[in-house]
């Protein structure tokens, strides 16, 4: 359930919040449909405990984590976005499972072994690569033994990229393209996962997708990763699910 911007707290200010206008909408940029691969993992594997949503935005993944029964900490630098996340959680009866914290993800100090699920949707590409690698290491350390992480980044095939194939593309560019300062070259996110001890990749994909949620329709190029620390393969049937157990 969505909430009009007028229902949110007035504490946030557009003067010190670069994402204020992006989220100060009845239908926020990037929409409210949860990441499909994450939703499939939650539905199939039924994780329990605490979850962390880094760069929570308008709350699409935060609410999906809460609907799955997890206790969620949503972090974003936009106080306006977080105000609306809480209003949406309240309207959906999920407020007891959601807490928020306004901060730059580069300032995070994540508690080791604290979370069953960690989500970072278009976060590692919004900070310089050295900071991205440091945050990645914190995320892995904060993930519990059977935990899973969902990560999504823009690649250098994106029209907003100043290098790679994206620099050659023509057409509209996202209104938030200037905030993506670290486009991932092909396979870099996968390489980071492969080089991380104890992490196993359940899904990796590089794809092009159209965005109709804000401004003129525009193309994105994304890399999507779902990985786990589980030593035994979880009940992951894929996305789209293939040969699922009957009755599930």
Secondary structure: elements and pairs:
Layout: H1 20-23, H2 36-45, E1 50-54, H3 60-67, E2 71-76, H4 79-91, E3 98-102, E4 115-121, H5 129-142, E5 143-154, H6 188-194, E6 200-211, E7 218-228
Could you please describe the fold and organization of this structure?
- By secondary structure, this protein is an alpha/beta fold.
- The protein has one domain (20-228): 3-Layer(aba) Sandwich (Rossmann fold).
- It is built from six helices and seven strands.
- The protein is globular.
- The two termini are 26 Å apart.
- The model is unreliable at 1-10 (pLDDT under 50).
Percent of residues in beta strands:
15-25%
Distance between the termini: 26 Å
Mean pLDDT: 88
Query: How many distinct helices?
Result: 6
Helix content: 10-25%
Class from helix and strand fractions: alpha/beta
Shape estimate: globular
Annotation, overall tally of beta strands: 7
How are helices and strands ordered from N to C? HHEHEHEEHEHEE
CATH homologous superfamily annotation: Vaccinia Virus protein VP39
Assigned CATH class: Alpha Beta
List segments where confidence is low: pLDDT < 50 over at least 5 consecutive residues.
Answer: 1-10
Count up the domains: 1
- Side-by-side strand order of the widest sheet: 3-2-1-4-5-7-6
* Radius of gyration, taken over Cα atoms and rounded to an integer in Å: 17 Å
């Amino acid at each position: 359930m969505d909430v009009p911007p007028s229902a949110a707290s007035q504490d946030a200010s557009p003067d010190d919040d670069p994402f204020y206008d992006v989220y100060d909408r009845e239908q926020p940029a990037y929409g409210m449909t949860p990441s499909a691969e994450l939703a499939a993992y939650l539905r199939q594997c039924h994780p329990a405990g605490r979850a962390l949503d880094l760069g929570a935005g308008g709350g699409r993944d935060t609410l999906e984590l809460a609907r799955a029964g997890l206790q969620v900490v949503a972090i974003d630098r936009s106080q306006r976005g977080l105000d609306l996340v809480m209003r949406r959680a309240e309207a959906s009866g999920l407020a007891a499972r959601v807490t928020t914290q306004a901060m730059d993800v580069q300032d995070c100090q994540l508690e080791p072994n604290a979370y069953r699920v960690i989500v970072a949707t278009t976060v590692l590409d919004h900070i310089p690569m050295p900071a991205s690698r440091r945050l990645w290491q914190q995320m892995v350390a904060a993930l519990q033994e059977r935990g899973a992480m969902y990560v999504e980044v823009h690649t250098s095939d994106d029209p907003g990229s100043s290098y790679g194939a994206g620099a050659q593309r023509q057409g509209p560019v996202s209104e938030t393209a200037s905030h993506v300062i670290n486009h991932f070259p092909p396979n870099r996110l996968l390489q980071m996962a492969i080089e991380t001890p104890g992490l196993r990749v359940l899904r990796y994909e590089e794809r092009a997708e159209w965005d109709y949620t804000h401004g003129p329709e525009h193309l994105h190029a994304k890399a999507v990763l779902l990985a786990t620390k589980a030593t035994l393969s979880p009940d992951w049937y894929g996305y789209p699910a293939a040969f699922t157990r009957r009755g599930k």
